[in-house]
User: Which sequence fits this backbone?
């Protein structure tokens, strides 16, 4: 008996939601989230298939390596937390395999980082940004330390890129303006 791939489970979940679209308060949001989740999961699985050169349960003459189950991962997006199952490959690090879709340490999207930076540039404190995201997404999305880290990484990228410290100067301009009120 073959096990069911996560993408097939997600596809079934999406089909069930589509079957009962009239019952949902906001079907567009739900269908969009489930569709995005399915696309990402399928991309992760296809990436492993391409690397191994064979489908699940397919035999090949000389195999590069073997699938080794799945690892649950959560990626924080502007639609909320998205739970995926990242396929594992036996000895992936020795073989030099790293997912291009969900690389090592990827835990949030650039769009979510942009929301954090936007709130920070508008003068919100790190706690205010954290609270605003939690209120909008109805679950904790970014902690105070994550918000601080995103802002610090952005400030470092901004300075290193030779952009003249636009973020730093904007932040100090915002702070000066706030003090003058």
Assistant:
């Amino acid at each position: 008996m073959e096990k069911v791939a996560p993408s097939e489970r997600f596809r079934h979940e999406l089909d069930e939601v589509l079957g009962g679209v009239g019952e949902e308060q906001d079907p567009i949001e739900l269908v969009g989230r489930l569709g995005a989740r399915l696309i990402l999961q399928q991309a992760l699985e296809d990436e492993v298939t391409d690397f191994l050169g064979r489908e699940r349960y397919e035999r090949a003459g000389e195999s590069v390596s073997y699938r080794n189950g799945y690892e649950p991962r959560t990626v924080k997006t502007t639609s909320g937390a998205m739970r995926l199952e990242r396929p594992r490959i036996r000895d992936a690090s020795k073989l030099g395999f790293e997912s291009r879709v969900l690389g090592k340490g990827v835990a949030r999207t650039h769009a979510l980082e942009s929301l954090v930076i936007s709130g920070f540039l508008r003068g919100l404190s790190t706690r205010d940004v954290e609270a605003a995201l939690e209120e909008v997404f109805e679950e904790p999305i970014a902690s105070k330390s994550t918000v601080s880290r995103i802002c610090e990484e952005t400030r470092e990228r901004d300075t290193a890129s030779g952009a003249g410290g636009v973020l730093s100067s904007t932040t100090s301009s915002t702070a000066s303006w706030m003090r003058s009120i």
